[in-house]
Amino acid sequence: MKTTIDPASPVYAENRAAMLERLDDLAEQHAKALAGGGSTYVERHHKRGKLTARERIELLIDPDSPFLELGALAGWGTDFTVGGSIVTGIGVVEGVECMIIANDPTVKGGSSNPVTVKKGFRAAQIAAENRLPSINLVESGGADLPTQKDIFIPGGRSFRNITEASADRRPTVALVFGNSTAGGAYIPGMSDYVVMVKEGAKVFLGGPPLVKMATGEESDDESLGGAEMHARQSGLADYLAVDEYDAIRLGRQIMRRLNWRKQGPVPAADYAEPVLDPEDLLGIVPTDLKVPFDPREVIARIVDGSEFDEFKPLYGPSLVTGYAQLHGHPIGILANAQGVLFSAEAQKAAQFIQLANQTDTPLLFLHNTTGYMVGAEYEQGGIIKHGAQMINAVSNSQVPHLSVVMGASYGAGNYGMSGRAYDPRFMFSWAGAKSAVMGPAQLAGVVSIVARGAAEAKGQAYDEEADQQMRTLIEEQIESESLAYFTSGLGYDDGVIDPRDTRTILGICLSAIANAPVEGARGYGVFRL
Predict the structure, then answer these.
(1) In whole angstroms, what is the distance from residue 142 CA to residue 441 CA?
(2) What gap in Å lies between CA 518 and CA 425, rounded to an integer?
């Protein structure tokens, strides 16, 4: 692929400076998650001879291997600690790609709140769809009691997920470092393999205070739920670790003996890095998302050898479609070019998605769309039918989908491009990306037009000053709610990322996807033609 990007141009320099500023801010937001409960609680935790959640993960995964953290900004913009008091992500342990779920005991003792539950469900979904074994690093005081009404009923699903994983022949491992009380006791109780740290792990349905209240019985932590008791008497612990490092060693030992095999396609053994420099991605996206950019410039910097075989290049030019290879994995790509999706683009997408399903080829959706075109001419031309064809194709596609929001992802364009509601295997947003029902100015304008029409229908004078104030407030609200941090905080993607990391992250995802067979749809619903 060729490039028209000029790194010496003022526009490129402006875009790059703006993106670097966004990435500095992203680092600050990620720092909130990395801080856990704060330096005071981390220091207290260390003084007890314990490791933090991320320190445990770093020792668990293979040396010098990556860990793809997911949902790092979960809970952003809420009253809960950013990250949801839990760390989730994909790591390689003894050569096996695993879903790793670690309680953060520096945040209220690792207790679960509504964000924790939602983030845990997403981790379980990813593990199930991609056939990944799961390792739980457990240290949790159970439910965050003030929020029990929001987590008690739905939270029961987390235990069901563990048993379903085992039934699906996806091993589940629990390494218990500290408290695993009340409902949390069922994490080791339902896991295939359980390791407990001597004099550290405490696993019981009811602790000493609850037992005394319920039965009048006097007991202590160790006799009620200590690791040694469970290893010698109850049989709940399969392995007794002398300390946290030994527990991690035993966890790695378990994974080494699983005889795990991937069931998906094997990537090409040899592949080339992109010819064009991924560093250029910083200067490609305009500071104003209403200004279009050529997604081919992005594709050329993330695919193997910068090679891309474009499909239907002369038809429906606002959507780029074609085939490439990424870290040795074949992939089909759909990328928005000029923002708006017309009938031709929708029909082109529907055909391309069907073709990818015929050849069992995963699909990558690169979002930068304001949605489907509106207006009398386009309605009369069948834009609803054609948009429905694209959404039908996306909905019933069975090959894995990956979604990356590069710029805007508005309206039904988000749906047609396999947004969160369409269950892509993984979804990420670039720093500065935005997702909403429509742009802030457009939404405020629609509300204004409706209000003006209502006033005219009643024969009332319209208050222009109040209208301007209303539009300003709505624009500010929608602008803040469409930011990548906000949508990621709600769990609508799996993370906000640096554009330069896109290739690496997608490569990890494609490798994880290959743990399960990749098979396209064998049939579709009715397409309105």
Answers:
(1) 44
(2) 12
